[in-house]
Amino acid sequence: MMQTCPLCASSDCLPYHRDARREYHQCRCCDLVFVPPEYHLSPAAEKAEYDKHENHPDDPGYRRFLSRLVTPLRERLAPGARGLDFGAGPGPTLSVMFAESGHPMALYDPFYAPDDRVLNGTYDFITATEVVEHLHAPGRELTRLAALLVPGGWLGIVTKRVRSREAFAGWHYIQDPTHVGFFSEATFRWLADRLEMRLELPAADVALLQKR
């Protein structure tokens, strides 16, 4: 069955991997590896998985994890820059860390903070931490986020990147049933060109894109 890439909408996709539960295809245009829609969870089943997360602002380990994005992004922000935490989850912490540095953030999450009004504003920076791998329509969502940024604004993304077909087969990241899209460095370079943004890759799982 022909598959259409959920990021770039190309139909030039090939089988990439298969395990006991799902198939994975790779787009030859943008390099995204993705799970076909027939394997996606229902919204209720997806939320049930997210409800298992126990992230909290008082957890020093979780703060250390988030600092891999907070530290490089904060260095690039002007004083008082305002942000949006897209996909904040059940225990918003990133927004607390930025607020402590004088950067207030609005929150959006389709399950836990579903206030669409925040998606009508403009922002100096937007974060999506462990979010893009969950998106069923990443092309549409990331284009929308880029449009919310002011000129010179930053989109900060944290997601683990595809390295090789061999590594993918034993990768723990694909075991999460809510993970349906897997980005590589080539995917981020395609995305930056598509959105007319400047790309920086300060860490193995961090991508910073600046609006031109």
Main traits of this protein?
single chain; 212 residues; alpha/beta; Rossmann fold; four-stranded antiparallel β-sheet; 26% helix; 25% strand; globular
Describe the model:
The protein has 212 residues and is of the alpha/beta class. The chain has a single domain, classed as Vaccinia Virus protein VP39 (Rossmann fold). Helices cover 26% and strands 25% of the residues. It is built from 6 helices and 10 strands; from the N terminus they run E-E-E-H-H-E-H-E-E-H-E-H-E-H-E-E. A 6-stranded mixed sheet has the order 5-4-6-7-10-9, with helices on both faces. A 4-stranded antiparallel sheet has the order 1-2-3-8. A hairpin with a 4-residue loop joins strand 1 and strand 2 (23-27). The longest helix has 15 residues, at 60-74. The model has no long low-confidence stretch (mean pLDDT 97).
